[in-house]
User: Fold these one by one.
Assistant:
Number 1:
Amino acid sequence: MNTDTRFLHSLKEAMPSTRGVKYSTEDFAPPDRLDWLREVIGREYANVEITPPDAGVFNEMVIYAWEQLRLSVIRSDAITLQRLPREPDLISQDAYFAVIHLSGCYRLLQNGREVFLQPGDMTLYDATLPHHIVCPQPFSKLLISIPRPLLRERVAGIEHCTALHIPGRLGIGSVAAGFIRSCAHQAEQLQAGEFSLLSEHALDLLVLALATVRPSHFKLSKSRAMALHRVKAFIENNLSCPSLNPAAVSAGTGLSPRYISLLFKEEDNSLMRYVWQRRLESCRKELLNPIHAGHRICDIAFRWGFNDLSHFSRLFKQHFGCSPSDYREGHK
Amino acid sequence: MNTDTRFLHSLKEAMPSTRGVKYSTEDFAPPDRLDWLREVIGREYANVEITPPDAGVFNEMVIYAWEQLRLSVIRSDAITLQRLPREPDLISQDAYFAVIHLSGCYRLLQNGREVFLQPGDMTLYDATLPHHIVCPQPFSKLLISIPRPLLRERVAGIEHCTALHIPGRLGIGSVAAGFIRSCAHQAEQLQAGEFSLLSEHALDLLVLALATVRPSHFKLSKSRAMALHRVKAFIENNLSCPSLNPAAVSAGTGLSPRYISLLFKEEDNSLMRYVWQRRLESCRKELLNPIHAGHRICDIAFRWGFNDLSHFSRLFKQHFGCSPSDYREGHK
DNA sequence: TGAGGCGGAACAATACCTTGACTGTGGCGG
DNA sequence: CCGCCACAGTCAAGGTATTGTTCCGCCTCA
């Protein structure tokens, strides 16, 4: 990409917000703003063509790192973004973007579908695929960047779920949107650990809301998907049992170990690897959770089916890059 | 319990709501309402004494089964509920009740703590232990019943987390309260499956919010908290002994005086300061107690380990703002 | 003014956590 | 079903945080 980088330096200084990073066109002279905006959006979001209106550009983004996600609060003048089929691919983010529209008009096209959002509504799109976003007036929105694998593992046929209209006034959509807005609103007030924990809930709720509007026609050999689902459910219920092993899972689900192994193969994983992942994940969450602040690390580890602290320690570090106690400290 | 059951039948019919069960005094003739209300509350919540205001009773409850929890939306006229220490124990629910206050005034007493809620605020109490709830005006609230084991396994020392004030305007409290209100609001709109899934999130968020306000001695590591508890127990047993001093406590508990001093430091107090506080408090209670009306002040003081009346007098005034005899007179 | 309670500093004894090396087996893939 | 080797599980050593001690000087209050 040829975007010039003369703003890179000034950018890195322009962000003294407590938790989030703030970018604003206001910090620059009007003639520079458009170039600057192109660079920022290209770097932080996706490589898109930006068509600003004739009037002056105003655009303000506050970006929060949110565990595995990124939450952005965006206010902007009218704008059009377009990602073309052959965009040069220094992909900034291999992610889906979930949008919670707050005010103004918002129109999105992707995969031949088109969606209009009212304030409160949500939608999802693939940041790396061609898309077209039109906002003919000043508007504001929340944008949640969700790394592709995270959604893939949660939603079968996610690629068919883009550019759908998720109503934000009723039912689960309203609950999810309300929750995420609430998180964004309180972001600065929250402890780092609390804030992180909320991201998991946000993702869960988004996925739930998505499920209500997804088209029903994607076909993934149903029985296999169901079987895998059952297996995972069984694992979830028995995570804390140290003797959880292929034989146990097999007995508990009525499927042969070999078959289970094949099921996991589909997502480039294996049974026990998955089990350890889930255990680690549970421990990690508990380490962050202030409610368990008084508990020893070994208590937590044993509670989730580890039976040896050294084993846990090693695995944890390998997975998350630092030792359990460092992790707990670092996220206060 | 002797509550009559003549309403049982009519109750079971009075609930054609889609998901929730609705109870309302409106469905009954005014003279019957109070009896009916007593029965419903006793059966659905806890066995409490109900003191209605002089005016007519209005009370409306919609109860949703929420996976392992129960969510109630309650609107009511002024009311006072009191669970006495020796309530006959056909315990309707062995659960904690989380309250999200919506409108009006709400005051709760339990375990010697007292909490006032503003709209939006939350608190938690143990439905099976004595408690006292005062709402002097019409009010509305959400109530989430959480089976005891569910909270026990999530929060160490949950029994000390009752009657705490969880602010509902800021930070995690606002996120949690907002989420649950949103769930209640959309309850009728949601699929059964969706609705169930949300309960897990609700519980998680509640627990998180609780963690931010739990009393500080839970940030104390377990062993330290235990040690402090032992020290206090020893003090309580020997309050009346005038020679109770650091050396004695040390001997009685097996901890060094210095260490005990450190323990008290954590609650911004010191050993002997605590001892005098307890003695004064005991004396104060006895001064108020009509049983001891005939006893001389110096008898009372000496009985609680003071060995010098002038010392007692001075401390008392310093603490409670008036002399012991004034205090006794003033509170007849 | 002196007795006694309080808390700072320095230190010993643990408890708790992390890491490394090693090994035998059970989970994985053909 | 079977063979192979990655990896779960042990043991031991080292490091760091926590717990509890002693000694001592200061300050308060009777």
Note: The domain at 222-330 of chain B is CATH 1.10.10.60 (Arc Repressor Mutant, subunit A).
Number 2:
Amino acid sequence: MEPRKLTRNQALVLETLTHAEAPLSAYTILDKLRDHGFRAPLQVYRALEKLTEFGIVHRLESLNAFVACTHPHDHGPEKAVIAFAICEDCGQVSEISDPEIEDRLSLLATKQQFRTEKTTIEMRGHCGNCTA
Amino acid sequence: MEPRKLTRNQALVLETLTHAEAPLSAYTILDKLRDHGFRAPLQVYRALEKLTEFGIVHRLESLNAFVACTHPHDHGPEKAVIAFAICEDCGQVSEISDPEIEDRLSLLATKQQFRTEKTTIEMRGHCGNCTA
DNA sequence: GCAATTGATGTAATAACATTACATTAAGGA
DNA sequence: TCCTTAATGTAATGTTATTACATCAATTGC
């Protein structure tokens, strides 16, 4: 998947997320980008929408926040199922892609004739560093 | 698990959710309960918090909405992992409890020394009825 | 070049979801 | 009864997300 050409706003939002150590809310991103000319939530939300479509940013539903993708492969809209492990203490998020989970959920869905469009898996808890 | 004694507000909120055909937002519940004396969001949120604790109501993170539990067993705070299949068309939500998924996620978490407190699994898509 | 379309942007306003703060009341145990 | 704890009522505010509308930029077909 080619490194897609991003617009200025998209690039700024992505960069902000990439440098962050924890998920950021849209409004936090907005604040961080005021110096770069951002003035309204929509500028952020529109960029996030595209970046999410491209698969290089993920939305964490249980947090109403966003992270840059750290997953080695699978950019682009091929949309493998990704499970997120979110540390409540340090905010660190790790992405887990596991075919077994995916297959199992797929089977369970099929069994009841459910056609899945999008799957969210989020584990909230404490990472190794913060438990130690 | 004993049928727990609910307060008036909790009972009203639960009843509202039980009779609903799709997940309801807190504010929708509020509107439906105005005739019963509800006047502020907090009345709803407080009831929802307790009902969720009790395990008889679930919050759907990807929807910012709530459903009454339809799952046969597992009331009470024993907190089995539940996956939700949410139909985008009719709003129907089905609960799936699957030990394999649970075990697999547990294994993946352990592998990276992540201690899970709460797991969210939500599939968005189209149910059998709406696909047919 | 220059319409015409399409996609991105800017801005303001508002909608939707959730919490904080504080005062009051109800329920249960010593 | 007194004390403690849990639940409630109310107002205000905070946070997250969208709608509406005007403008601008890039691309395509002619």
Note: The mean pLDDT of chain A is 92.
